[in-house]
From TrEMBL:
CDD domains: NUDIX_Ap6A_hydrolase (cd03673). The keyword Endoplasmic reticulum does not apply. It comes from the Bacteria. Residues 6-131 form the Nudix hydrolase domain. This is NUDIX domain-containing protein. SMART domains: PGAM (SM00855). Keywords: Hydrolase. The keyword Acetylation does not apply.
Amino acid sequence: MGDGPDPIRAAGAVLWRRGDNGPEVALVHRPKYDDWSFPKGKAKDGEHVLRTAVREVWEESGVWPILGRRLSAREYEKERRPKRVDYWAATGNGGDFRPNDEIDRLEWLPVPEAERRLSYEHDADLLREFATGPNRTTPYIVLRHTSAGDKRAWDGDDVLRPLDARGRAEAAALAETLAGYGPARVFSSATARCMETVLPYAARMSSDIRTDWAFSMGTPMAASKEAGGRFTQLIGDGIAALVCTHGELVTEMIERACETLGATAPQDPRLPKGGFWVLHVADGTLVSAERHRLQAM
């Protein structure tokens, strides 16, 4: 970070719902500053940015958000420190606003009225970005399994190699982080380490885990690059999906998906263990793609 102060990290969302004449977005009023803005707030130490976004929107609006496409981050100076706020479009999944010391009012407004009400130009820019894209998108997640020790130290069949203690802790953290995108079908490599990685998420979301050899290592299907083709099949059916697989297959899956969706693939699609891609798709088009890694445990 250089010699300057560490940046303030924060996250929030453009929370929206259907209105009579198009989408309505939620704006919150802070009496301390007498301003109107989107629900957002600072990250806790070690908190993943996705969990920050969900928690802060919940705390400020009383609405539990389901994150959609990623919007542009906003960077500015606050109290002589750089500040970065990451944003997503989000829909609500229950809850009601209750005034508190920090937020005393919440209003749902059509986009033109919301733009006039907002106190800051950077928020107005964010609203205009939201308004130019599709409101609702479907997430497709590619997850690399978490830590499973050194395979050279495992004497059994590699298909049965389990997660180690660190990997199990990472899988539990992933369950909470990935829940921010809402429920999704869960597909996994048939290896123990992949199934154990998604088990906490599947339990949290009451989802079945469907094993698929196409996403597994050490099989003829994987060797013939069926992973990419199988993933594009899932994207084509329009239903959210989470796929847990191996690092060796991630590049093929992301590149094939981008090709199918008419988008340019990232220069380096690889993931660290426990890392994941989220492709937000609407009407057969890739609207946005985001890559995340878990913070150090």
